[in-house]
Amino acid sequence: MIEIKNVSFRYNYEREQLSGISLTVRQGEFVVLTGPSGCGKTTLTRLFNGLIPHFYEGTLSGEVYVGGKNAADLQPWEFGKLVGSVFQDPRSQFFAAVVKDEIAFGCENYGILSNEIQIRMKEAARALQIEPLLARHLLTLSSGEKQKVAVASVQAAKPTIYVMDEPSANLDMAATKELMEVLKKLKAAGSTVIIAEHRLYYLMELADRVVYMKNGKIECSYTSRQMKSLSKDRLSEMGLRTTTLSWDVNKIITGLTGEEPVLRVQNLAVKAGKSSGLLLLDVSFCIKPGEILALTGPNGVGKTTLARVLCGLVKEKSGKILYNGTGVKASRRCRHAWFVMQDTDSQLFSESVLGEMTLGKKLESTLLEKAEEILNELDLWEYRERHPASLSGGQKQRLTLAVALMQQTPVLILDEPTSGLDGRNLERVVQCVKAQAASGKAVLIITHDHELVQKVCTRIVYLQKGMLFKDFCLHADSYPLAVDCMLGIV
Ligand SMILES: Nc1ncnc2c1ncn2[C@@H]1O[C@H](COP(=O)(O)OP(=O)(O)OP(=O)(O)O)[C@@H](O)[C@H]1O
Ligand SMILES: Nc1ncnc2c1ncn2[C@@H]1O[C@H](COP(=O)(O)OP(=O)(O)OP(=O)(O)O)[C@@H](O)[C@H]1O
């Protein structure tokens, strides 16, 4: 289905990002591409769906065959007929305004009859449990909901080859399981599937092959059995995440300060949209300096909306937000809390990575030293002159965190800071967050990432159906509850 022979590629003005890649994917094969952030996974998938050379310009050499045809002779619409793609950032692939039109869009392009489109749309929506969202505007969806819609759209179109770039990045555990079921069906139907991923645990039963990339090259390739037998040390040496869903009880971090809360949320009620009902009904909790709190709960429960209220981007319907014991009105909350959003593109404004770090600040040598130190910690210093838009998904994600580390606010809110990160970069984020907490900041992390929670969080706040359902410190005794929260089975 796919044959890549000795392919090298370099984006304009950049060093080579793919070097001498050869890869064959047979019909019906299920291949997982993995490797450290920036190693070239997304770039490789862009060869399969024709985005290279049709959208991304650069220098390409070698031969690419897709569906038995020389890719050099294929027009973009011909790629579209063969290959269905789910991008790393689902927002960038939406064409329609409303969910059901988006799911139908791919089918319409394939010339499928409208009766059949309706059947497929319903099937795909059921498989991903997004039936209640069909009439909704795409812009109003949570990030996990958007990701499900993107997967449903390709599933409904039934292309010959499926190419998905980190399709689980924003999904909670239950939704990841639904995704796994969808993928299982695609495999059973004999489809060819290629997935670029950092989270390997949900793919281990499905993958025929795991291809490990590093620095633009294919380093090695494993069967999933071989992959599963790699030791934790070997995986971390390779910069990968674990292949199983396990928590080591001994590693749970505890530690709280006895100080007064820096942020107190009292009986907060928030509406989802202007004309819709209450999303958060009555939420109260507080966070102290030095605490690292995991805010978790199912996709669409209102975690991001809560964070937006805390930093004043959304107004509450009722309730109080107190910073250091004083009620703060929405327009002033950004002085107290810095929010790193999930959508990295909407918060990168400068022409260069270094410019982003110093944006709006007086350029003093201490500031530049701090920026250099942080960029080094997050392995971004070599990209300091690069335009932020040209970074890989994981690089952008680390840059938005790096910018947050430049700020002075006593509260730091991070929305899914590790969703697209490999094991090594996850560790880098962990170290940065620990240092922030040690310096007296309160860190609130919205996350579905169980590895992150285990490595760094001291407390879990779990939202369900608009209410704060659980709020507890992490220690050996609360371990089973923590696992249930991360699995979404409380
Ligand atoms: N205008 C609107 N009308 C109706 N519902 C809306 C509107 N805007 C947002 N919502 C809904 O509010 C819910 C909260 O979204 P939010 O992004 O806060 O969830 P989340 O818990 O962060 O989810 P995720 O884990 O998927 O990121 C979602 O179900 C979303 O669809
Ligand atoms: N449009 C672009 N222009 C210039 N360089 C780019 C562009 N897109 C990606 N790159 C660079 O190519 C390299 C590979 O990026 P790619 O997105 O393929 O990595 P990745 O393995 O998918 O990373 P991640 O896991 O972080 O998503 C990175 O160093 C990235 O900065």
UniProtKB/TrEMBL annotation:
Probably part of an ABC transporter complex. Responsible for energy coupling to the transport system. It is found in: Cell membrane. This is ABC transporter related. GO terms for cellular component: ATP-binding cassette (ABC) transporter complex. It is a peripheral membrane protein. It comes from the Bacteria. Residues 2-240, 263-490 form the ABC transporter domain. The keyword Translocase applies. Keywords: ATP-binding, Cell membrane, Membrane, Nucleotide-binding, Repeat, Translocase, Transport.
